[in-house]
Design goal:
about 625 residues, alpha+beta, DNA polymerase, domain 1, four-stranded antiparallel β-sheet, three-stranded antiparallel β-sheet, Integrase-like_cat_sf
Length: about 625
């Protein structure tokens, strides 16, 4: 009885609100002369319900008041006898919303957070991976170089101090300006403060670091420095473009046409950190707080040599410190794609946290308490990352590289629901820089299976149920419109679609309901790339390799699909994609620059697809009579 209400550790705010509502209940009991909870009878609870519902308060407060009493009843077996409500559940099995006569969404355990639009999420993940894998090293190296420059340990600064020891400022200035002129660069610039007139001025502090001098002395000789710069025809640039080399490529060309600026690199490393967070948070399925609390060395390998993340639980029992003040560790199975962003974050600095509150000077109080960057600040950084990508890498047609989400702003808490959608739907074609969602599914599901946190599995069940409903609706409409089906499982395909379409649906308000309906209604028809699998375990050709590896296959694996499998069926939609594949294979078979073995393979593939298309058209209703007339 009580276990159904207390199997999850409530948040502090939830406890606070419940106690507040119970205090109101206790005050009401006192006005009726009831001083002990054990003296309450069901009639009293009915009177209290009517009193609460008659008050001029909003519906949500009424529902909370009823729920608080039920929570107290849920704990009755754990309370002293004098603190126990009657054994009968207050107000029967009706929901608090039903008792209040309102519908405010109820206590559905499903993740109501809206998904990120597929086009937005695909582009965001693809660009985050590109920045991490192709541009990340450049940004990291420039940032580390900038840190050494600020600390005075940069090789150029050390060499300048040794070379110019005892040399006057004019000689140092002339040497520095000559180097800028030969490199085709201008004078390093910075925005001056308003009290100094504002506008763009020479960055005296940067010049001082390079020539090995004190910045105040360089500033005091600013007129001399400006005169020498003008004599050599040097303009003032917007930053000190000095740091790093550009090795990353975009479309075969360097992704930048100049080195990094001293101040610019601070922003870029913040955006790189946001890109790393997108990749880790999205492809791991972890909650935002769990990702932001990851620490150096969190990526490890288990006894099977598989990647796991070791961190702190972000929700539920055990998320807080123990009696000794230490936090319990939690392990999640993850894909190897996360190795690159985690290694990059660990190499940027020696911070304990992968996502420290600041890499510079802000939020030192958070750092002192070993608190990571806040979720709100990371969300802002991700939105800034999207703006930077769209400003810097716009599409040739002028459209944004990362299209906006039509629902609301991007934030980390939307990623888990979106990942559940993608691993269930698994859209064809390029899936965000070749990330295989089937692999992500198995890893993330493995990471959560058997643990206290089951919300990920619930999200998957809901997404699969929604996909099933959409798919059956589309398939039935196509059959009604005269779509032809061929292949060894064509008849079984039609039977399953019509059988599943009879299901009228029902209200789903619990996770177990979604899973139960999915199990009962799932017709096991899987649309793949230019083929459809009407799954039957006994006749599946792909199961041989799974069973050889000691695995029990429960769904098709298109990577192991065989053309002679008895489970295959081909819709008109599949055949249209087969025709597109045929054009590509025929072109490859006739390519004079391709090696002969590859041309032979392309020709064989083209022949196989031709036979498949011919069989599909030959078995189309009416095709036989047309053939007889032609004869």
């Amino acid at each position: 009885m009580a276990s159904a209400l207390i199997d999850e550790q409530p948040a502090v705010l939830t406890v606070h609100k419940t106690v507040r509502e119970l205090r109101f209940f206790a005050t009401w009991l006192d006005t009726r002369g009831i001083s002990r909870i054990c003296d309450v009878i069901p009639r009293d609870l009915d009177v209290y319900k009517n009193h609460l519902l008659s008050l001029p308060i909003n519906a949500l407060d009424k529902v909370r008041g009823l729920r608080a009493v039920r929570t107290l009843w849920g704990y009755r077996d754990l309370l002293p006898v004098e603190c126990r409500l009657p054994e009968q559940r207050p107000w029967g099995s009706a929901r608090a919303e039903d008792l209040a006569g309102v519908d405010i969404g109820g206590d559905s355990p499903f993740n109501k957070t809206p998904r990120v639009a597929p086009a937005t999420m695909e582009a965001l993940l693809a660009w985050a991976l590109r920045v991490v894998e192709d541009f990340g090293t450049d940004i990291r190296d420039a940032f580390v170089e900038g840190q050494s420059l600020m600390a005075g340990t940069h090789p150029v600064a050390v060499a300048s101090r040794e070379a110019f020891h005892g040399t006057g400022f004019e000689g140092r200035f002339r040497w520095y300006i000559a180097g800028l002129r030969d490199a085709g660069r201008g004078m390093p610039g910075t925005e001056r403060q308003k009290r100094n007139g504002g506008g763009l001025g020479i960055d005296h502090a940067h010049v001082a670091r390079i020539i090995g001098a004190d910045s105040h002395k360089v500033r005091g000789r600013g007129d001399l420095l400006m005169r020498l710069a003008r004599e050599n025809g040097l303009e003032i640039e917007g930053d000190a473009y000095f740091l790093g080399t550009i090795s990353g490529r975009l479309d075969g060309k360097p992704w930048r046409d100049r080195p990094f600026g001293v101040r610019e690199v601070n922003r870029l490393v913040r955006l790189l950190t946001a890109a790393c967070c997108v990749v880790i948070c999205y492809l791991s399925g972890l909650r935002p707080g769990e990702v932001l609390q990851l620490r150096r060395g969190c990526l490890q390998r288990d006894e099977d040599d598989q990647f796991v993340l070791v961190g702190r639980l972000g929700k539920g029992p055990g998320r807080g410190p123990g009696a000794d003040g230490a936090f319990a560790e939690r392990t999640w199975a993850v894909v190897g794609t996360l190795a690159t962003p985690i290694a990059l974050l660990e190499s940027i600095s020696d911070d304990l946290l992968l996502f420290p509150p600041s890499r510079h000077y802000r939020n030192r109080s958070r750092a002192q308490h070993e608190l990571s960057m806040s979720t709100g600040e990371m969300n802002n950084n991700i939105r800034e990352f999207i703006d930077w990508i769209n400003e810097s890498f716009a599409r040739p047609g002028g459209g944004p590289a990362i299209p906006p989400d039509p629902v609301k702003a991007i934030h980390l808490s939307r990623f888990r629901r979106t990942l559940a959608y993608f691993v269930v739907r698994r859209p064809g074609g390029l899936a965000a820089a070749a990330v295989q969602y089937g692999h992500v599914r198995s890893k993330v599901t493995l990471g959560y299976a058997g643990e206290a946190d089951t919300s990920w599995l619930e999200d998957l069940a809901v997404e699969e149920l929604e996909m099933l409903i959409d798919q059956v609706d589309d398939d039935l409409q196509a059959l009604d419109d005269g779509e032809h089906i061929s292949g060894p499982s064509a008849q079984e395909y039609r039977r399953r679609v019509h059988r599943t379409a009879v299901f009228a649906g029902r209200v789903v308000n619990q996770a177990r309901n979604a899973q139960r309906l999915l199990t009962g209604a799932n017709h096991n028809v899987h649309h793949g790339e230019a083929m459809t699998c009407v799954w039957r375990h006994e006749t599946a050709a792909c199961r041989d390799e799974h069973e050889a590896a000691g695995l029990e296959p429960s769904r098709p694996d298109q990577q192991l699909c065989r053309s002679g499998c008895a489970n295959l069926a081909y819709t008109d939609r599949d055949i249209e994609r087969q025709r597109e594949k045929l054009l590509r294979w025929e072109a490859d078979a006739l390519d004079p620059l391709s090696p002969q073995p590859l041309r032979d393979r392309a020709s064989a593939q083209a022949t196989q697809i031709k036979n498949l298309i011919e069989n599909h058209e030959r078995t189309r209703p009416g095709a036989a009579s047309e053939h007889e007339e032609e004869s």
